[in-house]
Amino acid sequence: MTIYNVYIFDREGQCLFYDEWFRTKQSGLSKIQEYKLVFGMMLSMKSFSERLATADSNQTVNFYKTSTYKMTFLESATGIKILINTDPNANGIRELLHKIYQAWTETANSAARLISSETEPDESFLKSRVKQIVTKHPCYV
Amino acid sequence: MTHIQHLFVINRAGSLIYHWEGKNEVAEIDKTYTSHPMAVHLEEVDQKAVVVFGEKEGVKLRYYVKSINNSPVSGTRFFVDNEEEPQNVLEFLQKPENFPVTVKFAAPTISTNEKIILSSMFHSLFTIAVQLSPCMKSSGVEVLETTQFKLFCLQTRTGVKFVVITSAASNIAADTLLSKMYELYADFALKNPFYSIDMPIRCQKFEEGLKILLDRAEKSNGALTF
Amino acid sequence: MSSKTKQNLADSKKMSAELFCLTYGAMVTEMLKDYEDPKDVTIQLDKMGFNMGSRLADDFLAKNANVPRCVDTRQIADVLCRNAIPCYLGVNATVTNWSNGDRDFSIILESNPLTELVQVPPHLISAGLSYSQLIAGAIRGALEAVHFKVFASAVPESSNSNTEIRIRFDQVLKDSIPAGEDD
């Protein structure tokens, strides 16, 4: 079991956060290009699923799986999107995404940010918090 | 209610060469609105008048307008009795003098054209998933799960993709189904000398084989293999 | 899976080997009349074989899910002799004559269902007719479907000897490998 990497995007597709742990293959693109591709693929997957499913209520894409990894999606009602790549058989990833989302909102809305909107979100603080959450997860080996 | 909703066979270039759709009842609902404005909010989506907001009394999101006062709607247009020129649905429903009005809504369906688009979309998603893999030697998308459906894909070494879409609640052994579809394709499409590779499959024997296979798959729901 | 393949083979309606041999013979002789040059007949047989092979490749993979993806010519030869040829020709085959840094090899068919009752006249052989080129073409077509480019030719048979298919590995067709299938 492995957790490879995590992407957090805002509503406009700006990558707010990225970190990786056991990633063994890079995409061959610059980071900026890769973020664009990941975000674009997620949007296409959503639109693909919406067109395909004719049942009536709204749907959310849970994950996709290949022979070697699984990408799990979480989208908040405000449009924040968190994507995480894990081992294809990993369990409990949805809960993990919720914890990361919580950590992100807490950091992004922290007191310092509220006083001055120009302060950049504390990247290293968020990084260490996400890392803490990820390493605690049973799938992180 | 059957579990298997769609089958697609996609060739190496991403074109759809075969599709099958389960015959689930398409929900329809008649509503009479006595006064303007209507409680549901309609907009034109993909050349249809579609419910985009205000799910109410059985009329759900993404349902489209199928007929107005029993006059069938094609696209967003329909004929009001004895008039020569068709009227636009959305404009018609904006006018208070046209009320009361009876509107038939229907659940969305997928046209063949949309299936062709979906196939090429999936083909590129499959390829991107390989590129974005965080580890070596990854295949493309083999499973895609949403709250509405499960999609399973088998890509053969020659590059043909077999895709099956089931309900989210299905427990059918999709890998067995896919490999048996591959066998049917090899037997009844490829061995037919009049079938040209990469072209749409129009073959009675293939259809018959598939029908038997699908029946067996549906009945096996929950079993590890069939 | 392989036991099932045998089962399928046993189940399938079998054609008498003699009728098959006669049908093939009738076709080749008819072609010799249509094409004046026996070399052209060899080319046509190769094309026909190629088309058969590119279709049978999928049939083979569909029914032998456990066959590994080949990474060298030794493995290709092994799969051909051990699985593919016994399955489709119903005869055993062996590999010999490795040369050119394992790029070239020969497959020897223990017996050849195409030539069981056939004696090819020497003047046609010397004019370039390769009677069993259909089999070589099928091997070429099947390998091309799994993205290996090879040259294959049936060594013209002298009577009483076993049929030899000479195969030369050319290259891996990188561009035609579908995404997610390359290593």
TrEMBL record, chain A:
SMART domains: Sybindin (SM01399). It is found in: Endoplasmic reticulum; Golgi apparatus, cis-Golgi network. Keywords: Endoplasmic reticulum, ER-Golgi transport, Golgi apparatus, Transport. One of its GO terms (biological process) is endoplasmic reticulum to Golgi vesicle-mediated transport. GO terms for cellular component: endoplasmic reticulum; Golgi apparatus; TRAPP complex. InterPro entries: Longin-like_dom_sf (IPR011012), TRAPPC (IPR007233). Part of the multisubunit transport protein particle (TRAPP) complex. Belongs to the TRAPP small subunits family. BET5 subfamily. This is Trafficking protein particle complex subunit. It comes from Caenorhabditis angaria.
UniProtKB/TrEMBL annotation, chain B:
Belongs to the TRAPP small subunits family. TRAPPC4 subfamily. Part of the multisubunit transport protein particle (TRAPP) complex. Component of the multisubunit TRAPP (transport protein particle) complex, which includes at least TRAPPC2, TRAPPC2L, TRAPPC3, TRAPPC3L, TRAPPC4, TRAPPC5, TRAPPC8, TRAPPC9, TRAPPC10, TRAPPC11 and TRAPPC12. Interacts with SDC2. This is Trafficking protein particle complex subunit. GO terms for biological process: endoplasmic reticulum to Golgi vesicle-mediated transport. It comes from the Eukaryota. Core component of the TRAPP complexes which has a function of guanine nucleotide exchange factor activity for Rab1 GTPase. Plays a role in vesicular transport from endoplasmic reticulum to Golgi and autophagy. May play a role in dendrite postsynaptic membrane trafficking. GO terms for cellular component: endoplasmic reticulum; Golgi apparatus; TRAPP complex. It comes from Caenorhabditis angaria. The keyword Endoplasmic reticulum applies. Keywords: Endoplasmic reticulum, ER-Golgi transport, Golgi apparatus, Transport. Signal peptide: none annotated. PANTHER family: TRAFFICKING PROTEIN PARTICLE COMPLEX SUBUNIT (PTHR23249), TRAFFICKING PROTEIN PARTICLE COMPLEX SUBUNIT 4 (PTHR23249:SF15). It is found in: Endoplasmic reticulum; Golgi apparatus, cis-Golgi network; Golgi apparatus.
From TrEMBL, chain C:
It comes from the Eukaryota. InterPro entries: Bet3, NO_sig/Golgi_transp_ligand-bd, TRAPP_component. GO terms for biological process: Golgi vesicle transport. This is Trafficking protein particle complex subunit. It comes from Caenorhabditis angaria. It is found in: Endoplasmic reticulum; Golgi apparatus, cis-Golgi network. The keyword Repressor does not apply. The lineage of its organism: Eukaryota, Metazoa, Ecdysozoa, Nematoda, Chromadorea. One of its GO terms (cellular component) is Golgi apparatus. Keywords: Endoplasmic reticulum, ER-Golgi transport, Golgi apparatus, Lipoprotein, Palmitate, Transport. May play a role in vesicular transport from endoplasmic reticulum to Golgi. Required for the systemic spread of the RNAi response. Belongs to the TRAPP small subunits family. BET3 subfamily. Homodimer. Part of the multisubunit TRAPP (transport protein particle) complex.
